[in-house]
Amino acid sequence: MPATTKTNFQLVINGILKENPIFRLALSMCPAVGISTTMMNGLMLGIAVLFVQIFSSCTISLVKDYIHPRIRIPTYTLVIATWVTVIDLTLAALAPVAYKQMGIFIKLIVAFAIITMRLEVFACKNTLWPSFWDGVGMGGGFLFGMLTLGFVRELLGAGQLFGYDVLGFRPLLFFALPVAGFFCVGFLMAAFNYIEIVYNKRKKAVN
Amino acid sequence: MKLLKSYKLMSLAVVLCLVLVSGCKNKHSYISKAKFKGNHNIIITFAGEVDTAWARDAKNYGIYAKPDPDIQLKISKIIPGPDKKTVDLYFTDELNQNQPHILTVKNIRSNGKDIGSAVVEVKKLYFGFLFSILIGAFLIHNFVFTKYLGLCVFFGTSQKKTTAVGMGITFMLVMVASAMMSWAFYQFILKPFHLDFLQIVVFIGLVSLSVQAVDTVLRKINPALFKAFGVYLVLVIANCVILAVPLIIANNEYNAAESFMLSLGAGAGFLLALFLMSSVREKLELANVPVTYRGLPIAFIVAGLFALAFMGFSGMVIF
User: Fold this and answer.
1) Are residues B195 and B277 both part of a single domain?
2) Domain check: are B107 and B222 in the same one?
3) Which domain holds residue B276?
4) What is the Cα–Cα distance from B13 to B2, expressed in whole angstroms?
5) What does DSSP say about strands B101-105 and B61-65: parallel, antiparallel, or unpaired?
6) What ipTM was estimated for this complex?
7) Which of residues 77-96 of A touch B (CB under 8 A)?
8) How many angstroms away from the CA of A31 is the closest CA of chain B?
């Protein structure tokens, strides 16, 4: 793939909608299922991933000319691991309560396929600014996916949003269970598929 | 294959030796046994008779949980046994049986004679503890269905049974190898030099290293096996379980045998999850699934049903 021709705005939108890491690419599913029980959790982890994605994309796009192609994957992993360590220690110091809730997931950002994949597909072929905006798009897409899941699960499971009572009752307690993450992701994916099918049909009918 | 088998036997023997060595060190000449009996009770068995008056005095006993030595536990009641060889200690607070407790018995008096003090460690049966770690990682806290880790690889390689089993076995081997390496690195290098903050970088580096090592060794020793499993090796790095296990081991300060059991259980649990899922997905190919649910959405819902089933194991305690 040659250097991208897209504008910055297109890059961001691409990450959030067209290639959404959770609903379209189906990468980095572990946190999407595991800790999307509340919007707050989704927001925290989303911000952490956004940070790691942007900074490692920028780092790789800056040093891409000095990396031998054969050792590029280990290099990516080490760069990601460094930035994850930074955010891990920062969160542990600044937001200890949320950090404890998230448990091991912050450290596991290292193994998220989405970040390595973006470095391999995009950042190692593009200059600093497109890589930055691609990082914003992908991290933002992840944040958007986590917030959507958290919104559905917190609203249906506990009748709350960000911990504030919205509905006053609990519509479907089932969604507060940790297991419901699988069902929630499945249903939302099916909904996205449905929208796509209907959209394509309409487009055909117009033509 | 034969070579592989002998390696397995050797590693098993090493682990057994470690277990035996670490299991037999806490003995005192006059206390033959001290063990938990229920949540509030410890029973001490002496090698010979002890004086009842001495045994009834609560001042003669001191006990604390090993991690916090400054908190002495309160004894509520002492009942000497009828044969004068056993003493039942009752505690006001509940004992945490997962932690070893240190029991000090002062100036043991037998037939009016003082025969010195004794310090013993009271803990659960060690083999039982190891076994409970293994089963815990395998079923009760299955990494895929109850901790929601390793899902990318789980959904990616569970379409066919052969692929699933291949991936599972490869993963198990790499998991055990890299977990043991990470354990040794953490215990002997990172901890003594206070480099704990490098955990993530070092562990992920060791994982890539052990994947590369397994790749090279397998290619030379058994080309047929490499042909079958080589493609899955790269995928192992993208699996969060392989990083989660060393982190858990480092957090809980497990020893070598415990780490081995945890990594083995995690690997076997992943294999089990892959096998179950691939069996269902092969059948799903023939089913008439609604268009919107085809592919990943239905796979997620099936995984959710499995997870619900695995919830049935939660709260189960072995030994």
Assistant:
1) yes
2) no
3) 126-311
4) 17
5) antiparallel
6) 0.84
7) 77-78, 81-82, 84-85, 88-89
8) 8
Task: Give how far Cα B85 sits from Cα of A71, B51, B79, B89, Å.
Answer: 67, 9, 11, 13
Record: contact B200-A30, CB cut-off 8 A: no
Do residue B290 and residue B201 come from a single domain?
yes
Whether this model's pTM surpasses 0.90: no
One digit per residue, the tens of pLDDT, for chain B of length 319 reads 555 566 666 666 655 555 544 444 444 567 777 777 777 778 888 877 888 878 888 778 888 877 777 777 778 888 888 777 888 888 887 777 767 778 888 878 777 777 777 777 777 677 778 888 888 888 888 888 888 888 888 888 888 888 888 888 888 988 998 899 999 999 999 888 888 888 888 888 888 888 888 788 878 887 877 777 777 777 777 778 888 899 889 888 888 888 999 999 999 999 999 999 999 999 988 888 888 888 888 999 999 999 989 888 877 766 5
The one-letter amino acid code at B42 reads I
Q: Which residue range forms the structural domain that includes residue A49?
A: 8-206
Which residues face B61 on adjacent strands? Answer: B105
Tell me whether residues B292 and A197 touch, CB distance under 8 A. Answer: yes
Do B40 and B140 belong together in one domain? no
